[in-house]
Write a structure and sequence with these properties.
The complex is a heteropentamer of chains A (633), B (168), C (458), D (490) and E (112). Chain A has 633 residues and is mainly alpha-helical. Chain A has helices at residues 10-24, 31-57, 85-108, 114-136, 140-158, 165-196, 201-204, 207-211, 215-232, 241-244, 250-259, 264-271, 273-277, 282-304, 309-329, 333-360, 373-376, 378-392, 398-413, 415-440, 448-453, 459-474, 490-495, 510-535, 545-551, 556-603, 610-631; strands spanning 62-72, 75-83. Chain C has one domain.
């Protein structure tokens, strides 16, 4: 192994240092300095990541071990980082998008008080650190450390404006729902330890260790890992935290809740694809597919009727994550990773764009109060439109290629699945353009003050938008399907040593493949047109009927509240006020009271009367004699 | 089964003893109680004589019937209790007391009746261990230590009577 | 034998000292000198030096264990007199006679610890009992004292009757009053033997205030002058206990299977009634009376187990329980208010007294590193050595936990409550010093019990 | 010698402390004494960790078969370090709280420390029992004299409850002693015992109840929230941080290796109790309004998990418990320090009366959040390694229901997040509702104490192996004693 | 005379004494009942004494003193009873002086 590569620890360490400096010095450092440190540390990581990428490209994959984190008996968990193609790709995404968002944030958050500004960057740096740890971890435990770390940062950043209890509640919700998934993840790890005796990827995915796992082990482990992923990657049934997480500052939403953290689940499954590709994981794969599909569809329907600019994007994210899971479930791991990448570009772009809008609107997020912003905010409008086209999947924008790969994979599995997936893609196009049109075209519907205030965002904000827009356009070129160009799927080729998709059972002819692309593209274009027609002259009106159900997110939050939160709340109250006090403690105190009562009663024997004393004595004597002489033998 | 004069005497004395004991317990007037108790003691002394325990018979009459009971009588007279002053005690308690005592007797008798060997006999009217000569010899040889110790008992009783009785 | 005779002589000396000496302190000095002499004599006994050679015809046999026990008892009496003798002045005018009676009781104690004949046991018990009746009633103006004396006397005589009946039945069965089991004495009639044995069990249970023959105890202890309650509840009680165990150990060892059940029942009932009833008491004195019943329950384990551990435990109990109880009663005798509230805030005005009282109470409750714990420890150890005793032992420790309730009420009153209106009495420094000595003794034996137990075997 | 000093220093200084009249002096004296103990403890850990230094045997009650035998083994190191560190932290963290009769207060605190050290080090059952009570009595007086309104009744319940438990244990000890061939109370003699299974089954409960009350496990726990609530905070810190470990130590050292068959047989029952305790306590904690009670219930949940992991009977669980013994103590002391600060400054510990403290005291908030997160076992805090190993152990247990146990106990993790985050949210976040007091940040002593705790949290979070190594050989040896599974394998 | 007769007789007397203690309120009479109990014991002891003498006699011990101890014991009982009576009556008189009654039902200051 190349010793120079040992220094990959610097990649996560730089953001960590940034976190420490910004965190401890938040009251003493100037905002500029904080911004510089925050962004600079990520930039350092980015440069290192690029260097690492180069190394990997040359075939230098390796594991760097530093010290033993935990070593008990035969279980040894080193603190080790793994660099391979998969992590290299993710490193680039994280540091790249992360850097842009840091730069953007320095401007976006400039209004904050100095201490809070420092805190914000500290959190952000800590997040990047955790995310890097997550993707670099050479074993499941290090991965898990990063996994929970990003959860923590997400919690901290959602509740960044901690004066608003609504936001704090959202933060709690995010953390707790993540924890539910984390529990499953943990149990999966324990299961693996119990069966295979190791958590290190390199050792785990060897034939020897895999052979130790029975079919049911694999089913259980893969399912548990998947449940873990549903928490982090916002899938049914644990997706409801993500829309609420929009309480955090918009760059946070862009970074954490669109580009990086939420894709951790996809990364984790891709990382352990060896398990998922096994025959015994068939059931799990199906479950993943259908869960992903259902999530994608459900979120897309909800997104149709949301009025909060960030909520639309949040549901869109959930929906896109669903797509990625469909890819995973159908064995198209590369497609999933590909979509992670393209999604990181365009969704970060969209979020940052919405941030620009919100910034301009003075904090307003309701699109019903917007309209016609395109005139005042050209760059934002333009880049936002690029993002919409990319996500809608129009060639040659990046989204097209990645989504196409997924749709293809779905078709191979079943045409019905494909149909649903296409339908969902159409919904995506529809609600994205609804958003675009309501926000940027037509008449302005906000207050005069807001109108007066409208302006394009500063350079520091628009520049990242532009860069991301470019990436959204060209990002797909790394994965051009083979049918279009021989050797166009560079991503697959690059990832091949680390991750490769499951081979399809039967092949599709080139013409069929073109046909499918054509159908989807045509339908998408039609849908976009329809959306433009419907929302061209948007007027605010109350949602009714089915639209109301959608606007209220199918009442899922209310359902969870009713069947889980409320009963637990009630149970807690019952246990606290009644069971614990009356029954458990009551028994203890009751014993005491019983003694007291017994004392009072027994005292009556002591009547003070000689006669009764003698009587009691004689009676006991009679009793004892009777037993001694007539009952005992 | 031939009934001898001793049998007749035995039964007579027993009946007298029990009857006077019952009368002692049931008499309302304390003075009568004392007198009935003396009668009991006489009957018991009679038994002693039947058993050839002449010394004890005499001592019983002199010490118990003579000295102790007179002391009782004297105290009763001193307190002017020679009237039927005792108010009715709780009747249930009385019945319970009588029942309990009766039960105790029945159980003890039943327990000892089975077990006490029939052939074991207290020899009546024979042997001379009860004579003062024999008892005295034994008392001042073998039992001299307890005899001396009983003087401590008397001393303490004496001190006690002084402590209790002395006017302050 | 030395102690037996000297104690009787000392009783007589005290009788006359009352006539010859007018100063109460002089009388007290004579008494304390007397007990010192007695202690010395007892130690001489222990060393094997007999001043008198008397043929008791095997009716009285002083074995090593009894002699050690006597010595310990006399030492405890010494402590008792040092601490409480001044308080006797308040009881009545017959100061010297009280001491005389105490010495007579000690004479009885020497008998009860060394008898080998039922006759001596009977005489010993009576020599102990009769002076006690008098001491109980010694405060003649106090109606409670009178009442206690009469109750004690009537019930005590009644139990004497039971005892004598038992002895008579045993005599019928064994043709001898000797408690020694020898080939010459073969019980011919088991029913008579059992009946007599159980009657004796009742009578002795009465004397050590074991339930259900304990009823006299609270009333008498409560009514008697506090100084004498202290004496009765401690020294007398352990002495009779010793006799109790000696009797059953010597005489009824072969019948263990017959009486152990009843000892078990009596132990359990005693523990139950003593501890549970004590919980509700409002007067500390009465609480201590019930506590003495409860402690008797623990001492019964020595009888139950009838083993070396049990006797060691009884020995420790003698010191631990007596020292603690004497200390508490000595303080109580000087308090104006006998209720728990009377102790409120004592720690503020009398920190030293409160601290020693705490040690005594902890010892009674059986908290480790006090002698009381070691005593209970040996008892439990002894009991566990007997098969099938687990439930009894568990019951006993549950009751011990209950006992914490009432002992700690005093501690709570002293430390955690505000003092009431009536001021606490002042305690002379000698008195405090003696309390410290007692407390020290309690802790010393708790930390290093071998100091005492080592004397038992050599 | 180290072992003896660890008991002697607190004992002697504790007794001396009663003689000091001046309040400030007493405080300083106690603090210095606790530092001395810490220094000795660290010496024992580093420079003087040879066998001879860590062992101490003196004759005592030899006729009973008992001796004054002390030994610092791996677990002893951890627990002594915890005890030694807990005291300076407590004194430092509560420097501002000035109890009346300070000399007595600190004297009793130090005496309790001596008792706890004794419990952790004793290698003789009788000595163990003595120290067990020696630790309890000062605690009783501390809580009763300096506590809250209902202190007398509450602490009395605590005392009687634990006393009853310890008496039952005494029966067990006595029984075991009577079974040893040379009638010895020595630990090694106990370990050599081969008690028949039928007897083990009931003997087990005599010990277990005592330890379960101390820890406390459901359903023996009700003394605990009340006592924590009523006791003065310094006492509560020691109670919850150190004293509850006595119960676990009892299980580890005195119960499971001595009665391995019964421990195996009753393992499921204990685990059921523990799992119930975890969920139960967590649910109750969710609804608590009183910070102290909330933390008390959270402690019950944590301790229950440790008990469950112990009875999983494998190395992973054991090592997890070992490290968690230390972590839990440090973390909960940190929480108490902050609760104490809140109560002193704001005059209430009701969550409903607090809010928005983060605006007034950001530093305190950060400390609290870090410690609270450590308490819910976030990775890279000290709690993680322990809980990770414990859960891992639980899933590898011999029990047929191990998966159920693991999943249910795992719910505890989720519920822990719920109540911890809710507490943080309601207390520190949101609009400030109480501005009765001027904005004050932490005092230097508080910062020092909390800072030290955070350092420990992070150190053991990032490099837990440093502590796991300490107990490694102990755990292995222990496991070899309790492992009876070979008897049941075909 | 069979020993059983004596046993029954003296148990009867003894029980009558107990019943008296149980049912009477007058302290003096209670005391007298106790004396009756003692006498019952005495009678039994003498009877046993003669029984043992008889046994020894049958076994060939013609000039023996078997059974003497029983009668000696009776003597001691009488001694003790006498001492007890002196103290007991003193206490009763003391009581009478204070409350002008010897009714034990008035002894109820001490209870609980």
């Amino acid at each position: 192994m190349n010793n120079a590569l040992q220094i990959v620890y610097l990649i996560p360490l730089l953001p960590l240092l940034g976190f420490l400096i910004n965190g401890l010095g938040r009251n003493y450092l100037s905002k500029t300095l904080i911004g510089l440190i925050g962004s600079g540390s990520i930039l350092g990581s980015l440069i290192l990541s690029i260097w690492v990428f180069m190394q990997v490209k040359d075939g230098n994959t390796f594991v760097a071990e530093y010290f033993n984190f935990i070593a008990v008996d035969k279980l040894v968990i080193p603190f080790a980082l793994k660099i391979d193609q998969l992590s290299a790709v993710f490193l680039l995404i994280i540091t790249g998008v992360g850097f842009l968002i840091h730069v953007y944030s320095a401007s976006y958050m400039h209004e904050e008080k100095p201490g809070h500004f420092g805190r914000y960057f500290a959190y952000l740096n800590l997040f990047v650190f955790s995310m890097l740890l997550l993707v670099m971890g050479a074993n499941l435990v290090i991965l898990f450390i990063g996994w929970e770390g990003v959860g923590l940062c997400s919690y901290l950043l959602i509740g960044y404006w901690f004066k608003k209890q609504e936001y704090n509640k959202a933060a709690n919700k995010a953390f707790i729902m993540n924890r539910i998934g984390d529990l499953a993840f943990l149990i999966a790890i324990f299961w693996l330890i119990a069966r295979a005796g190791t958590v290190s990827f390199d050792e785990l995915f060897t034939a020897v260790n895999l052979a130790k796992l029975s079919a049911s082990d694999i089913t259980v482990i893969t399912l548990l890992l998947f449940i873990g992923a549903t928490g982090k990657s916002a899938q049914i049934p644990l997706y409801t935290w993500l829309p609420d997480a929009m309480a955090g500052p918009t760059p946070v939403s862009a970074l954490i809740h669109a580009a990086t953290m939420v894709t951790a689940g996809i990364y984790m499954i891709a990382r352990s694809h060896v398990l998922y590709s096994m025959d015994a994981a068939e059931l799990t794969r199906n479950i993943i597919t259908y869960t992903g599909m259902a999530t994608a569809l459900l979120a897309a329907t909800i997104a149709l009727k949301q009025n909060d600019i960030k909520k639309v994007l949040a549901y869109s994210t959930v929906s896109q994550l669903g797509f990625m899971f469909v890819a995973l479930g159908t064995g198209a791991y590369v497609a999933a990773v590909f979509h992670v990448m393209t999604h990181a570009f365009f969704k970060a772009l969209l979020f940052l764009g919405s941030g620009s809008v919100i910034h301009a609107m003075g904090g307003e997020q309701d699109i019903r109060n917007m309209g016609g912003l395109g005139k005042k905010m050209k760059i934002t409008y333009g880049t936002f439109m690029v993002g919409c086209i990319a996500i809608a999947g129009i060639p040659p924008f990046s989204g097209f290629f990645s989504k196409d790969a997924i749709l293809l994979s779905a078709f191979m599995k079943s045409p019905v699945l494909y149909a649903v997936a296409v339908f969902t893609a159409l919904l995506t196009a529809f609600y994205m353009f609804r958003l675009l049109i309501i926000t940027f075209t037509g008449k302005f519907r906000g207050t005069d003050e807001q109108a007066h205030h409208l302006h394009e965002s500063p350079m520091a904000m628009t520049l990242p938008l532009i860069i991301l827009a470019v990436l959204s356009i060209v990002g797909g070129l790394v994965g051009i399907p083979e049918v279009i160009r021989e050797g166009g799927d560079k991503l697959s080729a690059f990832l091949a040593p680390a991750v490769s998709s499951m081979p399809h059972e039967h092949h599709l002819s080139h013409s069929d493949e073109y046909l499918l692309m054509g159908i989807s593209t045509g339908l998408v274009l039609a849908t976009i047109l329809a959306a433009i027609m419907v929302y061209r002259n948007y007027q605010r009106k109350e949602a009714t009927g089915f639209a109301k159900v959608l606007e209220n997110k199918w009442y899922v939050d209310e359902l969870y509240d009713r069947i889980i939160v409320q009963p637990l709340h009630w149970l807690g109250g019952f246990l606290k006020d009644i069971f614990d006090l009356k029954v458990v403690d009551g028994l203890v105190n009751g014993a005491g009271r019983l003694v007291n009562y017994g004392s009072r009663q027994l005292r009556l024997l002591q009547s003070g009367q000689v006669g009764s004393y003698v009587l009691l004595m004689v009676l006991s004597m009679v009793l004892i004699f009777a037993i001694q002489f007539f009952l005992r033998k | 089964m031939n009934i001898t004069i001793i049998d007749i005497l035995w039964w007579f004395l027993s009946v007298v003893a029990i009857f006077s004991a019952l009368m002692m317990v049931t008499s309302k007037n304390p003075v009568y109680s004392v007198l009935w108790l003396i009668a009991t003691f006489f009957a018991i002394s009679g038994h002693y004589i039947l058993l050839n325990a002449q010394f004890l018979a005499i001592v019983n009459i002199i010490v118990y019937a003579g000295a102790i009971m007179v002391l009782f009588l004297f105290v009763i007279m001193l307190m002017n209790l020679n009237k039927e002053t005792e108010p009715q005690k709780n009747r249930w308690l009385k019945i319970a007391g009588a029942l309990a005592g009766g039960c105790l007797m029945l159980i003890l008798v039943a327990a000892l009746k089975d077990a006490a060997a029939k052939e074991q006999v207290a020899s009546v009217n024979q042997g001379n261990i009860g004579l003062i000569k024999n008892l005295g010899k034994e008392l001042f040889t073998t039992y001299v230590v307890p005899f001396e110790i009983s003087s401590v008992l008397f001393l303490s009783a004496m001190v006690g009577a002084v402590v209790i009785g002395k006017k302050e | 034998m030395n102690a037996l005779i000297i104690s009787a002589v000392l009783g007589v000396v005290m009788m006359f000292s009352g006539i010859l000496l007018k100063q109460k302190s002089a009388i007290r000095t004579v008494a304390i000198a007397g007990i010192l002499v007695l202690l010395g004599m007892s130690i001489l006994d222990l060393k094997g030096i007999q001043l008198f050679s008397i043929d008791t015809r095997e009716m009285i046999v002083f074995d090593h264990f009894a002699l050690v026990f006597n010595t310990v008892i006399f030492a405890v009496v010494l402590l008792y007199l040092l601490l409480s003798a001044p308080d006797m002045e308040k009881v009545g005018v017959n100061y010297a006679e009280y001491f005389a009676l105490i010495f007579f009781i000690l004479c009885g104690a020497a008998l009860v610890t060394s008898f080998k004949s039922l006759l001596i046991l009977f005489l010993g018990i009576e020599i102990i009992s009769i002076p006690l009746y008098i001491l109980t009633g010694s405060d003649k103006r106090n109606l409670k004292g009178n009442e206690a004396a009469l109750k004690y006397f009537l019930l005590g005589s009644f139990s004497t009757g039971l005892m004598l009946m038992g002895i008579a039945l045993l005599y019928g069965a064994r043709a001898s009053f000797s408690t020694v089991i020898s080939p010459a004495i073969i019980p011919q009639n088991m029913s008579l033997l059992y009946a007599g044995m159980i009657l004796l069990l009742f009578a002795m249970a009465f004397k050590v205030s074991a339930a259900p023959f304990h009823f006299w105890t609270p009333d008498v202890y409560d009514g008697a002058p506090t100084v004498f309650t202290s004496f009765m509840a401690t020294i007398v009680k352990v002495v009779v206990f010793f006799g109790f165990i000696r009797l059953f150990d010597d005489m009824f060892e072969p019948q263990q299977g017959q009486w152990r059940l009843w000892v078990t029942v009596i132990t359990a009932v005693t523990l139950f009634i003593g501890n549970i009833t004590a919980v509700f008491q409002q007067s500390v004195k009465r609480m201590l009376a019930y506590s003495s019943i409860a402690q008797a329950g623990f001492m019964l384990f020595a009888l139950y187990a009838m083993s070396g551990d049990g006797k060691e435990g009884l020995m420790l109990y003698t010191v631990a329980y007596s020292a603690a109880t004497i200390g508490i009663f000595a303080v109580l005798a000087r308090m104006s208010d006998y209720t728990f509230d009377g102790f409120n805030g004592l720690a503020k005005s009398q920190p030293m007294v409160a601290a020693t009282l705490t040690v005594f109470l902890l010892s009674l409750a059986g908290i480790p590193l006090t002698a009381g714990f070691m005593a209970k420890f040996y008892m439990l150890k002894a009991a566990l050595g007997t098969p099938g005793s687990l439930w009894l032992v568990i019951f006993a420790v549950i009751m011990a936990a209950v006992s914490v309730y009432y002992y700690f009420r005093v501690i709570q009153a002293m430390y955690f409550k505000e003092p009431g209106d009536t001021p606490h009495p002042a305690f002379p420094s000698f008195f405090k010093g003696m309390l410290l000595v007692l407390a020290f003794l309690v802790i010393l034996l708790g930390v290093y019990p071998e100091l005492l137990l080592g004397r038992l075997y050599f | 010698m180290i072992a003896f000093l660890l008991i002697l220093i607190p004992l002697a200084t504790g007794l001396l402390s009663f003689l000091i009249r001046e309040e400030k002096t007493a405080k300083a004296f106690a603090f210095l004494a606790s530092l001395a103990t810490l220094a000795v403890s660290l010496l024992g850990l580093t420079l003087m960790n040879s066998e001879s230094n860590l062992q101490f045997i003196a004759p005592w009650m030899s006729s009973l078969g008992s001796s004054f035998a002390l030994k610092i083994d791996g677990m002893g190191q951890v627990l002594c370090l915890l005890t030694a560190i807990a005291y300076p932290l407590t004194f430092l963290g509560t420097w501002q709280a000035s109890p009346k009769n300070a000399n007595r207060f600190f004297g009793l605190m130090l005496l309790a420390q001596a008792g706890m050290m004794g419990v952790f080090l004793a290698n003789d059952a009788l000595l163990f029992y003595f120290c067990w009570e020696l630790a309890l009595i000062p605690m009783y007086f501390l809580a009763s004299q300096w506590g809250g309104e209902k202190r007398i009744a509450v602490t009395f319940k605590f005392f009687v409850y634990t006393f009853l438990g310890s008496l039952l244990m005494l029966i067990g000890i006595l029984y075991l002693q009577s079974q040893t061939p040379d009638h010895s109370f020595g630990l090694s003699a106990f370990y050599k015992l081969k008690i028949p299974a039928s007897e083990q089954l009931w003997l087990f409960w005599l010990f277990f109840v005592a330890f379960a009350i101390k820890m406390p496990l459901f359903p023996f726990h009700t003394w605990q929230p009340d006592t924590y609530e009523q006791a003065p905070t310094a006492t509560t810190m020691i109670l919850s941080g150190v004293m509850v470990k006595m119960g676990l130590l009892g299980l580890i050292r005195w119960l499971m290796p001595v009665l391995p068959l019964a421990s195996f047989q009753w393992g499921d029952v204990v685990m059921i109790l523990a799992v119930i305790g975890i969920i139960y306590a967590s649910l109750v904690a969710i609804r608590q309004d009183d910070l102290k009670r909330l933390i008390a219930y959270s402690s019950i949940a944590h301790i229950s998990l440790m008990a469950a992991a112990l009875f999983a009977e494998n190395l992973s669980g054991t090592q997890g418990v070992m490290i968690q013994l230390f972590n839990h103590g440090v973390n909960i002391i940190g929480l108490w320090i902050i609760v104490e600060i809140i109560e002193r400054r704001y005059g209430t510990r009701k969550i409903s009366e607090l809010g928005g403290l983060a605006q007034q005291a950001p530093v305190m908030t950060i400390f609290f959040v870090v410690i609270a997160l450590a308490n819910i076992a976030l990775p890279l805090t000290n709690g993680f390694a322990g809980e990770f190993l414990m859960f891992n152990g639980l899933l590898s247990a011999q029990s047929n229901f191990k998966v159920v146990f693991t999943v249910l106990a795992g719910l505890g993790i989720i519920l822990a997040a719920v109540y911890t985050l809710n507490m943080i949210r309601k207390t520190f976040y949101g609009e400030a509702v109480s501005l009765r007091v001027p904005v004050t940040e932490l005092k230097l002593n508080e910062q020092l104490a909390l800072g030290l705790i955070v350092v420990i949290i992070l150190w053991l979070g990032i490099y837990p192996q440093s502590m796991l190594e300490l107990t490694d050989s102990f755990s292995k040896e222990w496991f070899s004693k309790i492992d009876v599974s070979y008897l049941f394998r075909k | 005379m069979p020993i059983l007769n004596y046993i029954i007789l003296s148990i009867a007397l003894f029980s009558i004494g107990i019943v008296g203690v149980l049912t009477r309120r007058n302290a003096i009479i209670i005391f007298m009942c106790i004396e009756l109990m003692l006498n019952a014991v005495n009678l039994l002891l003498v009877a046993f004494s003669k029984m043992h003498m008889n046994t020894a006699f049958k076994a060939g011990d013609l000039a023996g003193t078997a059974g003497t101890d029983g009668q000696i014991f009776v003597f001691f009982i009488m001694v003790v009873a006498a001492a007890e009576v002196s103290v007991g009556l003193a206490i009763i008189v003391m009581m009478y002086r204070n409350i002008h009654s010897v009714d034990v039902n008035f002894l109820n200051r001490l209870k609980q």
